[in-house]
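Following up on my earlier thread - several people asked me to post the actual chain instead of describing it. Fair enough. Here it is, all 290 residues.
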Amino acid sequence: MSDGLKQRVVTAIILLIALIALTLFTRPFIFAAVVAVIVALAAWEWAAFVGIEGIALRGSYTLALFVMLMAAASISGFSGSADTSISYQVVLILGLGLLWWCIAAFLLIGYPENSAAWNNKFKISLMGLLALVPTWTGLVALKYALPSGYLVLGVVIMVAGVDIGAYFVGRFLGARPLAPRLSPNKTWEGVLGGLVTCCAVSALLLLGAHRYLFELRPPQVSILLLSCAITTLFAVVGDLLESMLKRNSNLKDSGSALPGHGGILDRIDALLAVTPSSVIIMMLTLDQVH
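Reply from S.P.:
Thanks for posting it. Predicted structure:
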């Protein structure tokens, strides 16, 4: 095993342990605070996509994102208690995020011919806010809805399933390029592999939830399994959008915070795009919206 691969594996193991500990063993308020710090660090990296240079200016963009997180927390009714359910205000914030990711899909289709329509500092800054704030809101809402953290881990594991399935199937069976101008290594076969893996892990998650957490009716199971297609779609969109922004900024990675993996955005790009739709579908299906 090469030194680079060893470093990547070690970092992945540490991240996995930290994720499980954060999700399962913290109270919702602490979870929200820690995830806010992670999202703020991601905003710092996003500033590089914008072309913002200097500690003061990048710090200002990060601070603006943090203020918006606090506003989202206030609107959503997040507090120190652990009995907060998903509100329609949360769904509204997630809906704005979902709208943005639908627009992002069209930007990818028209790239690079449409670059002049979005390639300015204001619009790329707004992209970051629309990507990061709804993701934080959705993950925190899931933690409040089920403090055990199972729903949060479910979303993360589904996204990881897409990523892992796409990587291995694409590597060994990939033949038809998906978006050669954005990411030459991604293939349609990889997307199919990601979908199949997502469906498999989702079935296991639903089985575990049904046996140990709450009863699931057949229509609920069907809807949640079918939503794997949406999860896979947005995971691909999130991955490709970050590739587009890195190409636009002449960056190889979004940052260097994670040895062997690049920046934080390099690890959560798919999660950013998946969270709004997944949380909306999950909460409406499980009757968690009031």
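The chain is about 75% helix and 5% strand. That should answer part of your original question.
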